[in-house]
Specification:
Layout: H1 3-26, H2 40-67, H3 76-101, H4 120-145
Helix pairs in contact: 1-2, 2-3, 3-4
Length: 152
């Protein structure tokens, strides 16, 4: 199994778990004399099985990410961490740019003028650079995911 396939399976397991949790909650109580649409005990057993499979899969994904080299200096896990940090940093700066760019209308000259405390232009340039760096590292990671075999 390729790493990318394992990541898709992980996402599928996670969705199934969330759906099962909702279905279990919907079938916990019924009016006296009625039966639930689905047996919560069966769903709880299924949930336990899926969680066990998911745990095993995540361990294999993590082992693979820690052992596979991304480049000469970093593992795939290192690159994933850097990518996530680029995303977070870009998100914060993009929000700052959005807030700082909002224009506050004054209805008369006597109203207080609101000005930005940061350079929107400079921050937008940083956002663009972070976006590019994120895309580059993410593209390489995605490509590797389809070529790497999942470790046991």
């Amino acid at each position: 199994m390729k790493l990318a396939e394992a990541l898709i399976a992980r996402a599928d397991y996670q969705k199934r778990i969330e759906q099962l949790k909702k279905r279990i909650l919907m079938n916990l109580k019924v009016q006296e004399g009625d039966a639930p649409y689905e047996d919560p005990n069966e769903m709880l057993s299924e949930l336990a099985e899926i969680r066990q499979e998911l745990t095993s899969l995540i361990k294999r994904i993590n082992r693979t990410n820690c052992e596979i080299k991304f480049d000469e200096d970093r593992t795939l896990a290192d690159a994933l961490t850097e990518r996530d940090q680029l995303f977070d940093q870009r998100s914060v700066l993009a929000k700052v740019v959005e807030e700082a760019s909002q224009h506050v209308d004054r209805y008369s000259q006597s109203e207080i003028r609101i000005i930005s405390t940061v350079s929107v232009k400079a921050l937008q340039k940083q956002v663009d650079q972070l976006s590019k760096a994120y895309r580059e590292i993410d593209t390489k990671i995605q490509g590797m995911n389809w070529n790497i075999d999942l470790l046991n």
